[in-house]
Design goal:
By secondary structure, the protein is α/β, with parallel strands linked by helices. The chain has helices at residues 3-10, 104-119, 133-136, 167-176, 188-203, 230-249, 267-276, 297-308, 328-332, 345-360, 374-379, 384-402, 422-427, 437-446; strands spanning 22-23, 39-40, 64-66, 72-76, 82-83, 91-96, 123-127, 140-142, 181-186, 209-214, 254-260, 281-283, 310-316, 367-371, 408-413, 416-421.
């Protein structure tokens, strides 16, 4: 045998380790606003900081954060030596869009308090009712006294909505109200809207910075480690699973069915399953399943009920949508954000489970207890971990905007906070990787089948 071929076949493919790392270009106001002078950072005179004596206090252009794949690098988040806004000239707009999520009020509070106390900004406004609020309502003046207790409240005290995105009306209103810093808090649809706002502002060559703070309780935004509110959601989901387990265990042939949030990803269902240890089967959008026949869901549940006398089934809202019967009109129905309206997989499964049992086990006792904690989970205030995370997100965003960066998202990558181009985040997805250790752990906990049909 040729020695060279023998050695090459024995070694792993490490070519990718030597590929050059590309630094992602981060938009800056100076790229399209000429003659914008750098100013000393007001933090130098902030009584709560000692910037001149703290080693490496300011982030430099050489500070970067590697992506998870190590193919890209992003600018490290944090305060810069120079700023491109005079705090006395700053007019801030903060808006929340889309659905609710634990931590929204914390982010708003920390943006207000951070801008006020760190940089001396005094004109801070909340835009009410989502994107349509820019052109349909009067902004609300905010200060630290007003938002002092907001982190202890669920929802968003600025109110929110879906839809209402009219680009020209929004940017015209931003100009007319002389806002020059925009903090946009929302999910992937909101981030796509923020990209359009940023591009229109850039086209008009306005000295207005735009930053997105990604919010999605489903944790379906890519690139960053996780979205805020996710850990709170998992914690609350466990309570629903625990209740379903008690109900199922207390009944003869009982099934506890819990539907959790997750339109396109099953992260909440996955992590809640791993955390609770009471789940017999976890169904997520990333994997197909079927009900009837060998290897199907009914066969598995039948076996589990015979073994334990009960079963707990967790399903993400986006799972099974392709096997739920739909009318032609339902196939086309969309919500105000343009998303396909999902049918309730929990209600459908409950009905199908009862039909199955009546058919295969006539005369035997059977109970399905269905729990949908969606709005309970979304509406609670953030737990301690998410509150800390929201604070760091808000401060990272503030430092980046004051440093002149725009069209970016602040978020952690492998635990290090970075500035990521807004367009990258708007396009990135974060599905559950069903071929990694996390899903293997789910299978080891539940011992559920893979629901692959064999011909």
């Amino acid at each position: 045998m040729d020695s060279s071929s023998s050695s090459s076949s024995a070694l792993p493919n490490v070519t990718h380790l030597f590929e050059p790392i590309k630094l992602k270009t981060l938009p800056h106001l100076t790229h399209y606003t000429p003659n914008l002078p750098p100013l000393p950072n007001p933090l130098d005179h902030n009584p709560y900081f000692n910037t001149l004596h703290l080693q490496n206090f300011y982030i430099t252009p050489n500070d970067v954060v590697l992506s998870h794949s190590s193919r890209f690098a992003y600018r490290t988040a944090g305060p810069r030596n120079n700023v491109y806004f005079n705090p006395s000239d700053v007019r801030v707009a903060i808006v929340t869009c889309g659905g609710l999520c634990p931590g929204l009020n914390t982010v708003i509070r920390e943006l207000v308090v951070g801008l006020w106390n760190l940089y001396g900004v005094r004109e801070i406004f909340g835009v009410t009712g989502g994107y349509r609020g820019f052109y349909s309502t009067e902004p609300v003046s905010l200060n630290p006294n007003i938002v002092h207790h907001w982190h202890n409240k669920g929802g968003t005290l600025l109110q929110t909505s879906r839809g209402g995105f009219d680009l020209c009306k929004i940017v015209d209103a931003i100009q007319n109200r002389a806002f020059n810093q925009l903090y946009i808090i929302g999910g992937d649809g909101t981030m796509r809207g923020a990209v359009k706002i940023f591009n229109e502002i850039k086209r008009r060559k306005l000295n207005i910075a735009v930053v997105g703070i990604p919010k999605t309780v489903d944790n379906d935004i890519g690139i960053i480690d996780r979205s805020f509110g996710f850990q709170t959601a998992v914690e609350m989901a466990q309570q629903a699973i625990s209740a379903a387990h008690v109900e199922a265990e207390s009944a003869v042939n009982g099934i506890g069915l819990v539907k959790l949030m997750g339109r396109s990803t099953g992260h909440i269902a996955l992590h809640a399953t791993l955390s609770s240890r009471d789940v017999d089967c976890c169904l997520i959008p990333e994997l197909d399943f079927y009900l009837e026949g060998k290897g199907g869901l009914f066969e598995f549940l039948d076996r589990r009920i015979k073994e334990n006398g009960h079963a707990v089934l967790v399903v993400a809202e986006g799972a099974g949508q392709d096997i739920i019967p739909r009318t032609d009109s339902q196939k086309e129905e969309r919500d105000e954000s343009g998303n396909l309206v999902f049918l309730d997989v929990g209600v459908w499964l409950k009905s199908e489970l009862k039909k199955w049992w009546d058919r295969d086990h006539p005369g035997e006792l059977f109970t399905v207890k269905y729990i949908d904690p969606t709005y309970m989970i979304r509406a609670v205030h953030a737990n301690a971990t998410d509150n800390l995370y929201c604070t760091l997100l808000a401060h990272s965003a503030i430092h980046g905007v004051m440093g002149g960066y725009t069209g970016f998202v602040a978020g952690p990558i492998s635990g290090n906070y970075a500035y990521i181009p807004l367009e990258d985040v708007a396009c990135a997805k974060n599905p559950v990787n069903t071929k990694d250790h996390n899903w293997s752990w789910v299978r080891s906990v539940t011992n559920q089948p893979d629901f692959l049909k064999t011909s």
